[in-house]
Structure formats: structure tokens, C-alpha cells
Design brief:
Layout (H helix, E strand, L loop, with lengths): L1 E2 L2 E2 L3 E8 L3 E7 L5 E8 L4 E4 L2 E4 L1 H18 L4 E9 L4 E4 L9 E2 L7 H10 L12 H11 L6 E5 H10 L4 E3 L17 H6 L4 E2 L2 E3 L4 E4 L2 H7 L6 E3 L2 E2 H9 L6 E6 L3 E7 L11 E5 L2 E8 L3 H7 L2 H8 L40 H25 L7 E5 L6 H11 L3 E3 L5 H13 L10 H4 L10 H4 L7 H14 L1
Parallel strand pairs: 3-8, 8-16, 8-17, 11-13, 12-14, 18-22, 22-23
Antiparallel strand pairs: 1-2, 3-4, 4-5, 6-7, 7-10, 9-11, 15-16, 18-19, 19-21, 20-21
Helix pairs in contact: 1-4, 2-3, 7-12, 10-11
């Protein structure tokens, strides 16, 4: 197989995951096989008060440069074709049109923009993901007041700014990262109510599909890395979406459960589902929608009572096909949002068995029942019932829990072969710039976890940056009349 008249045997596609505690890059070949990886830690964000978390974006850039340098050294016989990047959702900064920072970025979990939330709540739809102090929109409004000297500033997410540094072209985002900034991913435009809230001098990013080409790698940077300047840098996505791509979800009804500190459920749906009361919203995912919700239950409850080693050893003594008879709702403390919206819901952890094995089994079963209730809640609101569930996160490595969950959920449950978000964006890069899939066995892994780009109409494709939904609708009406 050839690309550009040359064999693809010597090519690579690179994914970068910019996470909360570190940065990781991974390269794959045309068959989706991992070639090399590199990683580096990131320092903790600066916290000057409860709920306030900020970080210097230059730390991200130095981390990205470091891992790309490491990766280049590990790929002496491979020529990179494209780079795609994911990062934390709702981490936002302001920068000048040439990418110069106005100040530190507010991290994904920063909640200082309380005053701005009151203004947003007056005009935003009830189910908008842009509501709340941790959403990008409130952070943008707060930063604009904090840095009034920064005129003609761009509102950029973590992934947007790094992509700008890689290409020298700033001011572009993707519809996954822009969701919590208020972007309407159904109509592919900025709502009028968002535009009305944006302070003078602040420019909203131009929005494209994840994986769309942004431009070639900056020539100076390419030379520094010893790579050709023809490498394409693609629009990114969020870390959670990249993890779902890596896990292999491709069709409506494919579900991904993340068994981390909390319990996060994702399912592909033919239509979006939004329910702010339960913290449910939808990311556009190729031709489908990725619907998700997160429970306060999860691995953090298990670690409150057991070490990782104890969980492993005790799980080996549990028969996953025999119910414990215990009816737990494991929570760290009072309060739940999904699948039950009850801020006062108390943990239910009694009666507590004197046998640690039985207590652990009760906890594992309780979390599995919450998982089942969560998917039922998503289906009640309009998502499909899951046809299969792929597990990611630390709990996915526990075969006893996997078998137990399959019994309680009544559908196949497997552990994902690939769980790395960097692998997900590498696959996205391959799908958008690599060879077309064929029927050979070696291409099976490259098909898994790939998303198809939305087939944009001519009118969609050429929307100018920052165009409002109303103005686009008016233009469409004029064009139809002219036709």
C-alpha cells in the first residue's frame, strides 16, 4: 500500500494526550499497531484557594516538546504523517492572535467564576453544558475581567493553544472542546446568547471537526525534531472522547464504562441526549453522539476500605456468579447526581460483613448495580440500551468484577485492549490521513475505535469563524431564495 506514491511501511501517526498529571505521546503504524511511546510528568496546578486551580501553559508546551523529541528518537526509520492531540475539557486561557499568553490558564476543575454563572444562567438554555462555574464560558468571562489589558484576545482551550504552537495558526478549536464554551454542536454554530455574553475584544474560536487538518507542522519545529514540515497537525478532541475512540466504540449501542475513582458511563447514540439535572450531555462523535454521565461512586470508595493489593487478592476468592445478598450504594459521602439526582443521598454500606471478602463483593456489586441503573437512565432519556460494554480504567483489569458486572448487566462486558487516550487520537489521525481500510487481517486493528467524519454540507463547511446561529440561519434562507 502506498501514500503519496511511497510505501506506508515507513510511516507513523502520532497521538498526544495532555492530561492532568502528565503528557504522553504514542505512535502507531498503518495497521494501528503501537510503535513507540514517550511520557513526562506535569507539576500540580497552582491552587491559591479552595476551588481555584491555575497553571502556566508554557509547562504544557515544554512537556509536548520533550515527548515529541523522545518519540522522534524512538522512530528513526519512520516518517510521521500526522499529529492529533487531546486534552482536558474546559481548561481555558486567553492569548493574543499570535498565541502570546495573557496569563495562566484556569484548569478544568476551577470553580472561581461564580459571579459569571449568574449572568449565564439568565440567558443559557436549562440543559446547556456551558452552565456552571467549571464550564469554559464562565472561565472566559472571568479571565476577560482579570486581564482587561489583553485586547483582541482569543479564547482557547488547552488543546487549541498547543495546536496553535505546533502550527503557528491560532484561533481554531473543535466541537468537542467547544461544547462547554457554549458551541451548538447540533447546528454547528455559536448561539446568539453566547455571543451576547462575550466581552468586547474577545474572539471565539473557529470550530472544525475533530481530526480536520489545521495546517502543517511549523517548519522551525519540524527541523528541530528532524521531521519533514509536511506533517499535518489535526484538530483535537477531549481526553474522555479520545479514550472512547481507543476503546473501540464505533456503533450506536456501543458503551464504554470507565472504572476509575468515579464511575463514568458513555454510550454511542444516534441522537444527542442532554439532561442537566443528571449532569448528562452529548459530544458529537462522527455521525453519532457520545452520551455520558458520571456517578460519585467508583474506585475511590473501594480504596477507602482496601488497598489495591487487597482488592486483587480478595477478588480471587469471590465467586462472581453467586450474589452476596448485600444491597449497597457505595459513596464516599452524601450526594449523588447520576443516575440519581439527590444531593442528600447517603451512602448505604450496611450491614457490613465481618468477612472482608464478602464486604468487597457487596461493594463491587453495588457499583455494578449503579452502572446498570445509569445505562437504564440514559435509555429512559433517549439513548439506546447498551448492546455491549467495554471497560477502561483501573477496575477494568479485575476479571472477577468484569464477570460480576456481566451477570448484573445481562450483556457482554469486556476490558478494552487499548485504554490510552493518546492511542485514541493516534487512531483518529490515521483515520483522517492514512490509507483507507481494506479487508485484510492486518487492517482489523486500524478499524477498531475509528470515527467517521461528519459529512458536512457545502454550507456547513464554509461557515466563517465565530458565526452566530441566527445569522447563519438567515444566510441559509437567503441562499435558498436565490436558488
Amino acid at each position: 500500500m502506498t501514500t503519496g506514491g511511497r510505501s506506508t511501511a515507513g510511516y507513523a501517526w502520532i497521538g498526544i494526550d495532555l492530561g492532568t498529571s502528565g503528557c504522553r505521546a504514542l505512535a502507531i503504524d498503518e495497521g494501528g499497531r503501537e510503535l513507540a511511546s514517550a511520557s513526562t510528568p506535569l507539576p500540580e496546578p497552582l491552587s491559591t484557594a479552595p476551588g481555584q486551580y491555575a497553571q502556566d501553559p508554557e509547562l504544557w508546551w515544554q512537556a509536548v516538546l520533550g515527548i515529541l523529541t523522545q518519540l522522534g528518537a524512538a522512530l528513526p526509520d519512520r516518517e510521521p504523517v500526522a499529529i492529533c492531540l487531546d486534552a482536558t475539557s474546559a481548561t481555558l486561557l486567553l492569548a493574543t492572535p499570535n498565541g502570546k499568553l495573557c496569563g495562566p490558564a484556569l484548569m478544568y476543575n476551577d470553580r472561581r467564576a461564580v459571579a459569571e454563572v449568574a449572568l449565564i444562567d439568565r440567558v443559557a438554555p436549562t440543559d446547556s453544558p456551558a452552565r456552571g462555574p467549571s464550564a469554559s464560558l464562565a472561565k472566559l468571562m472571568h479571565l476577560s475581567r482579570q486581564y482587561p489589558h489583553c485586547t483582541a484576545a482569543l479564547a482557547l482551550h488547552q488543546a487549541d493553544w498547543i495546536i496553535g504552537r505546533l502550527t503557528g495558526h491560532h484561533g481554531v478549536s473543535d466541537w468537542n472542546n467547544a461544547l462547554k464554551l457554549g458551541y451548538d454542536a447540533e447546528r454547528l454554530c455559536w448561539p446568539d446568547w453566547v455571543s451576547a455574553l462575550i466581552p468586547d475584544g474577545i474572539q471565539l474560536p473557529h470550530i472544525v471537526s475533530p481530526g480536520d487538518p489545521i495546517g502543517p507542522l511549523d517548519a522551525t519545529l519540524a527541523n528541530r525534531l528532524g521531521w519533514p514540515s509536511s506533517i499535518q497537525v489535526l484538530a483535537g478532541t477531549t481526553d474522555s472522547t479520545a479514550a472512547v475512540i481507543a476503546a473501540g466504540a464505533t456503533e450506536p449501542g456501543d458503551a464504554v464504562t470507565c472504572l476509575g475513582s468515579t464511575l463514568v458511563l458513555k454510550i454511542l447514540s444516534e441522537r444527542p441526549v442532554t439532561a442537566s439535572a443528571f449532569g448528562i450531555y452529548s459530544h458529537r462523535f462522527g455521525d453519532a453522539w457520545l452520551v455520558g454521565g458520571a456517578s460519585n461512586s467508583g474506585g475511590a470508595v473501594l480504596r477507602r476500605f482496601f488497598s489495591d493489593a487487597e482488592i486483587v487478592s480478595l477478588s480471587l476468592r469471590i465467586d462472581p456468579e453467586r450474589p452476596s445478598g448485600l444491597d449497597y450504594y457505595p459513596l464516599i459521602g452524601p450526594g449523588e447526581r447520576f443516575p440519581r439526582n439527590d444531593p442528600d443521598l447517603a451512602p448505604r454500606l450496611s450491614p457490613r460483613s465481618s468477612e472482608p471478602r464478602d464486604f468487597l463483593q457487596g461493594l463491587l456489586e453495588g457499583i455494578a448495580r449503579i452502572e446498570a441503573e445509569g445505562y437504564a437512565r440514559l435509555a429512559e432519556l433517549g439513548a439506546p440500551l447498551p448492546r455491549r460494554i467495554t471497560s477502561i480504567g483501573g477496575g477494568a483489569a479485575n476479571p472477577t468484577w468484569t464477570a460480576m458486572r456481566a451477570r448484573i448487566l445481562g450483556i457482554p462486558v469486556t476490558s478494552a485492549e487499548h485504554q490510552d487516550a493518546a492511542y485514541g487520537v493516534a487512531l483518529l489521525a490515521l483515520r483522517r490521513t492514512g490509507p483507507a481500510p481494506d479487508t485484510s487481517d492486518r487492517m482489523e486493528t486500524s478499524r477498531a475505535g475509528l470515527v467517521s467524519p461528519v459529512r458536512s454540507t457545502k454550507k456547513d463547511r464554509f461557515k466563517p469563524p465565530g458565526l452566530r446561529c441566527g445569522s447563519w440561519k438567515d444566510r441559509q434562507g437567503r441562499e435558498r431564495r436565490e436558488e
